[in-house]
Amino acid sequence: MAFVIPSSFISRLRILITAVALIIGAGALTTSCGDNDFNDLPREIQQFISQYFPGQGVADFSESGGTYTVNLDNSASLVFNSSLIWTTIDGNGSPIPRQLVFDQFPSKLYDYIETTDNLGEVYSVTRDTGIYMVIFHGYIISYNVSTGDIQPVVTGSGANG
After folding, report:
1. b/e map of 3-17 (b: 16 or more CB within 10 Å)?
2. Domain ranges for the chain
3. pTM higher than 0.85 for the full model?
4. Fold category of 7-153 in CATH
5. Largest Cα span, the chain
6. How many CA atoms lie within 13 A of 38 on its CB side?
């Protein structure tokens, strides 16, 4: 029995391929001005990027109400609050740098990640003044800053990271 691909599927596939090519082309245009974007960021954010993501250019960034969202070239997305302190680091499918985890996470949280052999498996972290939410490949934990408690986070999707 032969498998037949409908012509409508082929037409949709061509449209999808064209759309992807346009998106990639547009991305190339925005990344070409990455040096200017980097230089337009506050000094504290520039230093953070240089320290933990050396050699990564800034694809683009936005600022709204003092909050900066920064997208690095083919890499992480970062969010900084109005005090220029990071609140979210998303590796976008890649682990975030181990040195960042060591330097920026509370020592009890770092020790937990190290003892569970997950240092190279931190894909994203979000924090506020009281809670760190850390996404690994396949699961999430929360760390309560005031109590030091580390708990697994139950989600409905079953697959994270």
Report:
1. eeeeeeeeeeeeeee
2. 7-153
3. no
4. Inhibitor of vertebrate lysozyme, Ivy (3.40.1420)
5. 64
6. 19
